[in-house]
Write the structure tokens for this entry.
Amino acid sequence: MILCANHRAGYEALFTLLSREFVSETSLVVFTHDNDESKPILDACKKLGIKYFCENINYHSDLVAAFEPDIILSCYYRFIIKENILSSAKRGCLNVHPSLLPYYKGTFSTPWAIINGEKQTGVSIHEMVKNVDMGKIIMQTPLTIRSNDTAYSLYHRLVTLAIQMLPSALEVFSQGYNGKPQDSPKDSSKLYFSRKIPFDGILNVDEITYIQGCNFIRAMYFPPHQGAQFRLRDGSLLEANNESDILPISDQFHKRGTLL
């Protein structure tokens, strides 16, 4: 089996796989990233003697083909896996995605759900195909977005949910379940979001409402990364990590803004 992993989600997926009888340290290859978020994955692979690579899996098509994996699992991996790699898996390929597909494909799914004022999100474990996040749904579970959720808190809640789902999803997939096609979307404005920080991390206060500003703060809160920034009417920037940071400028917000 091949695991493409990143961040806490990938780390927990690694040990979830190793808890299954059909996966061992010698039957697993890991592709990850050489960054601070994935350091625990690298450390675990080194200590357990698991073969790992930090390069893009798409650069190792010969190795993947020779390994002949039954399943390729992508868990918050940063690279789009190409079709020739996907076709190397005998059973197929699965991806763990933090949204209720068909909505919020791509990246920054969680922040955009908060920005858009969604009441619900969830986790979709789906078959990987050539087109990003378009494969059949193997398992999908909703999760309520709390009024105080931030990108940080919601990320970790979704990761925990995904890891809870993963063993059952792998079991039914291994037994031959091919999933169901994604529902037809009713709102095309919430289908796909690119790998780009929402609004480049900055909003003009006179173009949004105060409530939209609060949602933006929650959506951008993911320490140690920079929080939400607001351009004030005098041109200066204010960084805000909670609602109290923008209370002093509440009169500058546009009351009828519909930007978000």
About this structure: The domain at 2-188 is CATH 3.40.50.170 (Rossmann fold).
